[in-house]
Amino acid sequence: MGDRQHPMRAIAAGVMLSVENGQSLSQCLPPALNRLPANERPVLQALCYGTCRWFYRLDGELNSRLKKPLRKPDRIIHHLMLVALFQLRFSQQANYAVLNETVEACRALDKPHLTGLVNGVLRAAERAGAQEPADDAARFSHPVWMVEKLRHNWPEDWKHILDANNAQAPMTLRVNALRFARDEYLGLLAEAGIEAKATRFAPHGIQLATPVPVDRLPWFADGAVSVQDEAAQLCTTLMDLAPGQRVLDACAAPGGKTCAILEGCGELAEVVAIDESADRLPRVQENLDRLDLNATLKQADA
């Protein structure tokens, strides 16, 4: 259960402000996710990752629509509008819902004096549509230094590299080898009407044609599969796991590799999973519990 006191967009704006203030998304997102019920966490994660992914384009547009920057105490409202712009430009959310709920989030953040500004800026953005980006940093949504570095090092391919870097990764699953063979689970997906194929390199991986909520995945809640990118899956396949070993997983949260190690060899003596963030360790335990696996969790700096 979560203990949310603010609308989701307000929580997302707080995460984005923390990123601006120097925290990584991996540091500030987990505590925010823990404030929400499990079924709402993917939505918040998508808002935060999407706003970060398109930050330079969204920020360029927002700054062009503001007559002057917001005062530092009101900076969170700048990020609230960035989250809303992300939804207007890159999501299927109804525009009226984005506008109305963002204004309500502004009130929930105790900034009622800025609701008129938020409403006006977002309604103007809705009417005008997406702007032509002012420069390559905004067009490709990367910092200037990175755009220039890639342009210099790969003059023929830099645009393709930047486009690929902004593409959302496909939804990939890792089949729990203690429960199902990959072909067997592919059959279950087909029966559920979910199009999928085996990954090219990871032996237990499955790539979905389109993302789906995890509650649509057969036996997900009972530990049949986990969501994990193919590259991350390959890490544990390179380990020479054997019965009786004690294995250390440093920087373990959210626990994907910890669980993959335990699935890869069911007779390990112990797996110790450490992470410097106490806020992230509950996610590791949640994954272990769902997969019916056991590991020793410790907060520590690797």
Summarize the structure.
It is built from 14 helices and seven strands. By secondary structure, the chain is α/β, with parallel strands linked by helices.
Textual characterization of the structure:
- The chain folds into four domains: 8-128, NusB-like (N-utilizing Substance Protein B Homolog, Chain A), CATH 1.10.940.10; 137-166, no CATH class; 169-238, Alpha-Beta Plaits, CATH 3.30.70.1170; 239-302, Vaccinia Virus protein VP39 (Rossmann fold, 3-Layer(aba) Sandwich).
- The chain has 302 residues and is α/β, with parallel strands linked by helices.
- 50% of the residues lie in helices and 9% in strands.
- The strands form two sheets. It has a four-stranded antiparallel beta sheet with strand order 2-3-1-4, covered by helices on one side. The chain has a three-stranded parallel beta sheet with strand order 5-6-7, with helices on one face.
- Helix 1 (8-20) runs antiparallel to helix 2 (25-33) and helix 3 (41-53) packs across helix 5.
- The chain has helices spanning 8-20, 25-33, 41-53, 55-65, 75-90, 95-108, 115-128, 136-140, 144-153, 158-166, 182-191, 230-237, 256-264, 281-291; strands spanning 172-175, 196-198, 205-208, 225-227, 246-249, 270-275, 296-299.
- A hairpin with a 6-residue loop joins strand 2 (196-198) and strand 3 (205-208).
- The protein is globular.
- The longest helix is centred in the N-terminal third of the chain and has 16 residues, at 75-90.
